[in-house]
Design goal:
Blueprint (H helix, E strand, L loop, with lengths): L8 H24 L43 H7 L13 H4 L4 H5 L2 H9 L5 H17 L8 H16 L8 H16 L7 H13 L16 H5 L6 H21 L7 H8 L11 H4 L1 H8 L4 H5 L2 H4 L5 E5 L5 H9 L4 E6 L2 H14 L4 E4 L17 E7 L8 H11 E11 L6 H9 L15 H12 L19 H8 L9 H10 L2 E7 L2 H10 L8 H14 L8 E7 L2 H7 L1
Parallel strand pairs: 1-2, 1-4, 2-3, 4-5
Antiparallel strand pairs: 5-7, 6-7
Length: 579
């Protein structure tokens, strides 16, 4: 028995430790891109898949069932951590009975693995990609089976979504091509009055979706028939949603396009392949990042750089120049719930996707068609103030005149506003130029001609993946963009691209009367910088660029993504201090 007064200090201390650990885990999740499930596409968990005839009286919610969610750029480390180890041993097509054997069956039907397949094009590397294409071939060979286990149907639907997201960039064997042609013929010739038609037809469409866009499937118009859908299995709902979603994107894009014509090859590229491909979901940790960071006192660097009198306003104005499909704008809008966010782009297809996905996420973001490299200024309503924050990452280097486009943004930013800029590194892009040389392409700046076909893209990937590991051109296979057709077009075949050195960036900052606030690198890069210049005194922004340049010469792939940095109109900090 315990006698004497009870001491609460140890309990309070341990509670504080537990809360600290929980907060650290949430932050770690946001760093690694792990979500805690903010919505899924179409599947239920395996035990819920037994229902054969779901009732669908209204258009289903886009993401009715929980599933782990990732951003559009899951890291290769994340993919390797979640990828089923049992699947690595799949070297040839297998039978249904093999897929149902444990532990393989349990590994390939987990919600986390299915959610990963549905999230974004996966940077699998040559090995894992071969395993997934073998899995797809196995499923295709089972097309004639009378019955499928519901969990395998869910797997096939997730794999089809992955193929759709990566633009069908995976190679297709001759045997698979013959099987696809045969199944298409069976779908065309099948009889709707047959009692088994719905189940067999839906399974065939699902397999064909693994090899081509849903709207091009034979008899896909039947997907809009609600009466037929009542008789179909649960897992077909996802295909229906995809067809309806694509139609919604196209309808919304018409609102932005109007009577405008395509002016350049760059615009044509992004009309055909909006970038980046993502499923319209944010990881849980990112959706709650604004509140979480305020609670623990960790604000994003650009928010820290904004003057306090702008943050006190209920709705700081934000411009995302080159918003694409809206993922970056969604991150900003979710971190600053009260901000007035405007996304602009010259691709109506991209704007249509952005508008629909942001509306689905409940974000109050506005979108507008605008060509940053054109002759017209951004048409803002009269009386509107300048922007407190302008985000232009990955846009300026695709303009004919990057400095001119940047100068236009400078005119739009408030006197004490902040700009976040992302530009290609000449050093890091050397491997891209090597890949272009291997493929017989012209150097960048302006590449005339039509975009390559899907077969040409597959052949180019096969050539590059077959190079020796020490070949400079093979380094492009480390890029996330290498694993989708749209990404590969953006990476290697872009019709207009500029890259820069840090010296040139310093000269452009000087030319535009801008002060560098902060230079950004990855966590690994920041660690290398700290180690490389440990013990050295603090330096000016210009000298900081020199230091990063020295580090990049030692590690050429340090900025394989982009140079990213924050800047401000010259003298803004001094003027603010005087006021």
């Amino acid at each position: 028995d315990h006698h004497g007064p009870v001491s609460w200090e140890p309990l309070v201390a341990w509670s504080w430790v537990a809360c600290s650990i929980a907060g650290a885990l949430l932050l770690l999740g946001s760093r690694l891109g792990f979500g805690l499930g903010v919505g899924s596409s179409q599947r239920r968990l395996p035990e819920d898949l037994q229902a054969e005839k779901p009732t669908v009286s209204e258009p289903p919610h886009p993401h009715p069932h929980p599933r782990c969610s990732f951003g559009p750029f899951p890291s290769q480390a994340t993919v390797f951590a979640i990828f089923p180890q049992q699947l690595l041993r799949l070297s040839s097509p297998v039978a249904m009975a093999t897929l149902l054997e444990e532990p393989l069956h349990a590994a390939i039907t987990t919600p986390r693995f299915l959610g990963l397949l549905e999230s974004a094009p996966l940077p699998t590397g040559e090995g894992l990609e071969a395993n997934l294409t073998m899995l797809r071939s196995s499923l295709l060979a089972m097309a004639s089976l009378p019955d499928w286990d519901p969990s395998i149907s869910a797997l096939a639907a997730a794999l089809a979504k992955q193929c759709s997201l990566n633009g069908y960039i995976w190679r297709v064997s001759e045997a698979d091509q013959e099987a696809v042609a045969r199944i298409k013929q069976e779908v065309v010739m099948s009889d709707e009055s047959d009692r088994q038609f719905c189940c067999r037809w839906s399974r065939h469409l699902l397999l064909l979706w693994c090899f081509g866009p849903a709207h091009e499937l034979p008899r896909s118009e039947l997907l809009r028939g609600r009466g037929l859908l009542r008789r179909c299995p649960n897992w077909l709902v996802g295909l229906l949603q995809h067809v309806e979603e694509t139609a919604e994107f196209e309808h919304e894009a018409l609102r932005f396009k109007g009577d405008r014509s395509t002016r350049s090859q760059v615009q044509a590229l992004y009309e055909a392949t909006p970038y980046p491909p993502w499923n319209g979901r944010l990881p849980f940790s990112l959706r709650n990042l604004g509140t979480l960071r305020r609670l623990i006192g960790m604000l994003p660097p650009w928010i820290e750089a904004l003057p306090s009198h702008r943050l006190d306003q209920p709705a700081p104005r934000v411009l995302v120049a080159g918003t694409g499909t809206g993922y970056g704008a969604a991150l900003i809008a979710s971190q600053l719930p009260g901000a007035e966010v405007l996304g602009v782009d010259f691709s109506a297809s991209s704007l249509g996707i952005s508008s629909v996905l942001h509306r689905r996420l409940g974000l109050q973001t506005s979108f507008m068609w605008y060509d940053l490299g054109g002759e017209e200024e951004l048409a803002e309503p009269a009386g509107r103030e300048a922007f407190d924050y302008i985000d232009s990452v990955g846009t300026l280097h695709h303009l004919q005149d990057p400095v001119g486009g940047w100068e236009r943004l400078v005119r739009l930013v408030a006197p004490h506003g902040v700009m976040k800029i992302g530009l290609y590194s000449s050093t890091a892009r050397a491997c891209v130029e090597a890949a272009r040389a291997r493929l017989g392409l012209r150097p960048t700046r302006e590449q005339p001609g039509v975009l390559p076909s899907l077969e040409e893209l597959r052949a180019a990937r096969a050539l590059l993946m077959g190079l020796p590991h020490d070949d400079p051109a093979r380094r492009v296979t480390h890029s996330h963009d290498f694993y989708s057709s749209g990404g590969l077009l953006d990476l290697v075949y872009h019709p207009c691209e500029h890259s820069f050195t840090l010296t040139e960036i310093g000269e452009m900052l000087e030319l535009l009367d801008l002060d560098l606030i902060r230079f950004q690198s990855s966590m690994h890069g920041e660690k290398l910088y700290s180690q490389r210049f440990a013990g050295t005194p603090a330096c000016s922004a210009a000298h900081e660029l020199e230091r990063w340049g020295l580090l990049e010469r030692e590690r050429p792939q340090l900025f394989s993504g982009l140079y990213i940095f924050w800047c401000q109109k010259r003298g803004a900090q001094e003027t603010l201090g005087e006021s």
